[in-house]
Amino acid sequence: MSENTRGCSNSSCTKESCAGCEHSKESMLEQLNQYSSIKNVIGIVSGKGGVGKSFVTAMLAVLLNRKGYRVGILDADITGPSIPRMFGINGKASANEFGLLPEETVNNIKIMSVNLLLDQEDSPVVWRGPILAGTVKQFWTDVVWEELDYLFIDMPPGTGDVPLTVFQSIPLDGIVIVSSPQDLVSMIVKKAYNMAKLMNIPILGYVENMSYVKCPDCGKEIPIFGESKLGEIASETGVDILGRIPIDPVLASLVDKGEFERFSCDYLTGAAEHIEKMYEIKA
Ligand SMILES: Nc1ncnc2c1ncn2[C@@H]1O[C@H](COP(=O)(O)OP(=O)(O)OP(=O)(O)O)[C@@H](O)[C@H]1O
């Protein structure tokens, strides 16, 4: 296959596939909007949908915002966007001559999501893969984020075409992999791990969501999805576990009310500190 047909712009590249190729990583990166400057870009990834990726994205964004950093969330989960709802945002994004303007939460976290562009938030996004990926790219190239210390990207679930394009188009400083304790998910965690390795993207750590439920009467922790396998995967892959989150009805209700910023738990305090240290190293 010639370089041109597979879209690699590096003339010295002879590789058959763009996956994991350093040449392609450089050549396929999109330019950030010229009125934006972002110090750290962190992707929140899961091998499959429904494990709480958006939940973890929102929690980390709020924790870093509380530490005084300028934070944004790019909702790249185009077909299942839930970020605006969690923060009670249901207005429409506006635009000016410099690009699309993100909406802001009560505490000034900037948010861009396809739901801010749809006429109705319950309209389905029935788009083909390249359009989905193109929309995510536009959230990077056309949104006026201005100055951010952290941009968290709620990645599309899975390891298919859309997440692959996002990995190749946006210069991620690191990813956090979210999982839940089921066996099936553990196998899928490794898919996410292997994809990040293939793409040479640093893995900051794992977060396990829905780890247990706390009995409201006796406080006992009940592992309703079974015992976690994440410890084994963590030592096998040499990646840290950054935190574990139980199923918490208080958090679920804050999500439903669009008041997620008001949570007061400390399940991911250690994870936020880890990410903050990364920032100190880069600053
Ligand atoms: N630890 C938790 N406690 C209570 N509710 C939770 C928890 N984690 C997730 N939820 C709820 O479960 C639902 C699914 O979570 P979320 O949208 O974050 O999953 P997701 O992995 O982003 O899904 P998808 O990839 O399909 O978009 C949401 O309503 C969320 O509020």
Automatic annotation (TrEMBL):
<feature type="binding site">
    <location>
        <begin position="47"/>
        <end position="54"/>
    </location>
    <ligand>
        <name>ATP</name>
    </ligand>
</feature>
<keyword id="KW-0378">Hydrolase</keyword>
<keyword id="KW-0411">Iron-sulfur</keyword>
<dbReference type="InterPro" id="IPR027417">
    <property type="entry name" value="P-loop_NTPase"/>
</dbReference>
<dbReference type="InterPro" id="IPR019591">
    <property type="entry name" value="Mrp/NBP35_ATP-bd"/>
</dbReference>
<keyword id="KW-0479">Metal-binding</keyword>
<keyword id="KW-0547">Nucleotide-binding</keyword>
<dbReference type="InterPro" id="IPR044304">
    <property type="entry name" value="NUBPL-like"/>
</dbReference>
<protein>
    <recommendedName>
        <fullName>Iron-sulfur cluster carrier protein</fullName>
    </recommendedName>
</protein>
<keyword id="KW-0408">Iron</keyword>
<dbReference type="Pfam" id="PF10609">
    <property type="entry name" value="ParA"/>
</dbReference>
<comment type="function">
    <text>Binds and transfers iron-sulfur (Fe-S) clusters to target apoproteins. Can hydrolyze ATP.</text>
</comment>
<comment type="similarity">
    <text>Belongs to the Mrp/NBP35 ATP-binding proteins family.</text>
</comment>
<comment type="subunit">
    <text>Homodimer.</text>
</comment>
<dbReference type="GO" id="GO:0005524">
    <property type="term" value="F:ATP binding"/>
</dbReference>
<dbReference type="InterPro" id="IPR033756">
    <property type="entry name" value="YlxH/NBP35"/>
</dbReference>
<keyword id="KW-0067">ATP-binding</keyword>
